[in-house]
Amino acid sequence: IVAQFSGRERCSLKRMCLFQMTVWWRALILLSFILNCVDSHALSPVVQRNKYYNSFRLTRSTRIRVQQLLKKYKEQHLGNKHFEDRSRQLKDLPLLSTDFYSWLQLPDWDRLHTAFLNMQIYWNMLERKRKQLEKEKTEQVMARVVRSTLPQSIKHIQLDLRDLMSQVSSQVSTSSWIKPTSPTSMNPESSKTVWDSRVEGYIILRDLDFYLTKLARDFLLLASKTHL
């Protein structure tokens, strides 16, 4: 009887040890998961700040492209590389004037959301202008006139804007924002002279230059806030 009782006791002790080992393993797995979450959270501001700086650098390089194209556009299409007309505006383009304190207090989600939508507007405007220039280019080739490289230059800027929109979209997605699936529609003016059409291209590039300056400041501000 004693031997039988000792055997049952040994089985009970064995089961107890297995139970304790299972509890310890579960505790270790849970602790490892918590530590991983803490490490990820600690690294996220650094990763996010680097993303903002990357967007800032791309914005700055895109602005240089725009400035170069604007100079070439004024020389080839307006006949004067020093042409300036600040009085003319396009109603479809985003507003460039912003109150400083309102801009400073704007929530990050709204700032990025607005940036994405504004870049989408500029992309669409450039697309319309690029197609128009390609049509003119075809007519020039048929008339044996010197071919223009403006459409290719606009395409390069569009690619930069697309990359910027992709970066902003990934940054805003962390705030559960869904990227719009349909582009902003543009309503072309019914009556427009050849000169008006050419000046329109100047206005688009001129305002895009100013807007990219503002957007670069947005990314610098967002990057600086990740230190807090």
TrEMBL record:
<keyword id="KW-0964">Secreted</keyword>
<dbReference type="InterPro" id="IPR010681">
    <property type="entry name" value="PRF/CT"/>
</dbReference>
<dbReference type="GO" id="GO:0007166">
    <property type="term" value="P:cell surface receptor signaling pathway"/>
</dbReference>
<dbReference type="InterPro" id="IPR009079">
    <property type="entry name" value="4_helix_cytokine-like_core"/>
</dbReference>
<keyword id="KW-0202">Cytokine</keyword>
<dbReference type="GO" id="GO:0005615">
    <property type="term" value="C:extracellular space"/>
</dbReference>
<protein>
    <recommendedName>
        <fullName>Ciliary neurotrophic factor</fullName>
    </recommendedName>
</protein>
<comment type="similarity">
    <text>Belongs to the IL-6 superfamily.</text>
</comment>
<dbReference type="GO" id="GO:0005125">
    <property type="term" value="F:cytokine activity"/>
</dbReference>
